[in-house]
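Dear H.,

Thanks for agreeing to be a second pair of eyes. The structure we're designing against is below in token form, covering all 170 positions.
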């Protein structure tokens, strides 16, 4: 036997033994983490007093972190906040025509918000409008006008909203 055959046999033996002994592992695909824009993260909390999709009134709070969003709600102003959040691995956010759409990946449960300057009580405020497609009766409203609930940077007892006559193109 010559040196090339011995060397070739040793290499083949080493490769086969490595493949047979090494445990089978799967490579994890890298998860894309969506980053919330500074516009939404600039204020720690966004507050709203509004009506939910079932018609109940309450206080709502949004907190945009770098890669996620946290929700809080309560029925009464002096009540306790009930928290929930979307984990970073399951979170997405997209911007189109001034509207930010965010929620859980591969889910129909999404939210659409639009930051803007608004006049409330004759004072200019930085606000966040949340599009509400519900009819406040547990379903979706099929025809305009639609309600846009306003979040402000401070909590009030006032329910701020405006109506639009078309379904926004998110």
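And this is the sequence the design step returned. I haven't edited it by hand at all.
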């Amino acid at each position: 036997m010559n040196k090339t055959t011995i060397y070739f046999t040793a290499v083949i033996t080493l490769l086969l033994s490595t493949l047979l002994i090494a445990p089978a592992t799967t490579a994890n695909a890298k998860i894309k983490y969506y980053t919330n824009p500074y516009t939404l993260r600039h204020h720690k909390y966004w507050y709203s007093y509004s009506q939910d999709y079932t018609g109940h009134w309450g206080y709502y709070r949004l907190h945009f972190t770098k890669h996620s969003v946290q929700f809080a709600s309560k029925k009464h102003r002096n009540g306790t906040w009930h928290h929930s959040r979307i984990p970073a691995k399951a979170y997405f956010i997209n911007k189109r025509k001034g509207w930010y759409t965010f929620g859980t990946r591969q889910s129909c449960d999404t939210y659409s918000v639009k930051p803007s300057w608004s006049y409330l009580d004759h004072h200019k405020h930085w606000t966040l409008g949340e599009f509400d497609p519900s009819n406040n009766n547990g379903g979706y409203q099929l025809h305009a006008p639609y309600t846009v609930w306003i979040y402000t940077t401070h909590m009030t007892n006032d329910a701020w909203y405006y109506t639009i006559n078309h379904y926004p193109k998110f």
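Two observations from my side: Residues 3-21 form the longest helix (19 residues). The CA atoms of residues 71 and 84 lie 5 Å apart.

Warmly,
E.
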